[in-house]
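Tutorial, part two.
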Amino acid sequence: MALRALDNTMPAAVEERPKKVAKVAAPPVAAAAVKAASPGSGKKQKKKNDENSAPRATAAAGEQAVEYIPSEELEAAAHPKAKAAGLVAELDSKDWIRACEALNDARRLAIHHSALLNPILEKVMLAIVKTMKNPRSAVLKTSIMACTDIFNNFGNLLSSVSDDAFDKLLLQLLLKASQDKRFVCEEAEKAMRAMAASMPPLPLLKKLKAYVHHANLRVRAKAAVAISHCAARMNIEAMKEFGMSALLQVAAELLNDRLPEAREAARSVVASVHGAFAKEAAAKGKEEEDAPDVAASWESLCSLSLPPISAQAVAKIAASSQ
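Running the prediction step on this input gives:
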C-alpha cells in the first residue's frame, strides 16, 4: 500500500482520458447511396426485389416458348437456297434458340427441298449429332425430330453419308432411347422406327449387330427392337446374305438378356427367320416331290448354328409361333 506524503497534500490529479464519441449511424438510404458511390467497393450489391418491376425471362420460360412443330405442319422454306447455304453454321450456333430454328430449317429442307440438303447432308448430320448432346431439352427434342424427318425422306441414308457419320448418329439415338426422360425416350424410339422402316434392312442390320454386346442393357434392348424390325422386312435372300446362322445366333444371345424388351425382340427375330425359312421350304416342296420336311430342316439348321440348349429354345419358339 502506498504511503501518503507527510505534508498531507492531496495527490496530483490524474489526467483523464478523452471519452469516446459515439458514432451516429447514417440513415439506411444515405448509407446505401454512399456505399454505391464508393469506388473501392468491389462487392456486388444484392438487387432489391421490386414487386412493381416486370419479371425477367428465364431459360425455362424460353424453352416453353419453343414450339415442337409436327412434320406434316412444316411449310416449305421461304428462301431454301439461302437456308441451305447457312444451315451448318446456324446449327453450330451457341444461341440455343437459333439452333432450334436451324434444326427446324433442316427439317423443312429434308421434307420440301431434299435436293438442296443432299449435297451437305453429312455435314448436317454431324452438326445434328452435336446438338443431340446439348443439355437443353428443347434442342435435344428438336434434333431427334430432325433425325426422324431425315430418315423418312432419305431412305438409303448410308449411300449419302460416311459410315463414321451414321455410326455417331446411331449411337446417339440408342443412348437417347435409353434415357429416363420419357419425352426424350419416346421421340428417339419414334426416330428409330422411322430408320428401320425407311432404310434397307441388310446394311442397317449389320450396323445394329455390334450393339448386341453393348455394356448398357437398355442400349442392347433398343438395338434388339431395331434388329427385330429389320428382320421382319427381310426376305430369305437378304437373310442368307447376312447369314441365317449369324441371325439365329444374335437372337439366341438376346433370348438370355436381362430385359424383357430384348427377349421379346429376340423371339420376334426367330419368328421372322422361321417364317422366311418355311416359306422357301414350302416353295421347294411344290417343285420337288422328295423335298425334306420343313420341321426337320429347321431343327437341323438350329442344331448346326447353335449350342444344344439354345437350339432347343429357338426351336420351341418357332413351334409356338406356328
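The mean pLDDT is 83. In part three we will examine how such features are distributed along the chain.
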